[in-house]
Amino acid sequence: MKKQFGYGCEFCRGIVRGKRVDREAFKHKTGFVILEQVVIGVCDHCGSRYYTAKTLKHVHAIASGKAKTTRTQRVPVAQAV
Ligand SMILES: [Zn+2]
Q1: How far is the CA of 26 from the centre of ligand 1 (A)?
Q2: Which of 15, 18, 21, 57 qualifies as a cystine partner to 1, CB 3.0-4.6 A?
């Protein structure tokens, strides 16, 4: 995996490892952006997720309509019962 991971977790003593995931939801001001086949960092001890600046920039570009998306998917929203 790429060299951009492998650093220490900021929450525990674990190591952040690069991992390719099928899909990851990113929260932003007005909702969510889902990226597929994205490489993220995951702490091997506590499971905290880390994102690269490049990934976050991409999410921001999609959220602000500056980058193309593959498709838009409706997400069900409900109040807790
Ligand atoms: Zn950790």
Answers
A1: 19
A2: 18
- Residues lying with their CB under 5 A of ligand 1, a single-atom ion: 9, 11-12, 14, 43, 45-46, 48
Q: How far apart are CA 58 and CA 14, in angstroms?
A: 27
Q: What is the pLDDT of residues 11-59, one digit of tens each?
A: 999 999 999 999 999 998 888 899 999 999 999 999 999 999 999 999 9
Q: How far does the centroid of ligand 1 lie from the alpha carbon of residue 23, in Å?
A: 21
Q: Please state the pTM of the whole predicted model.
A: 0.80
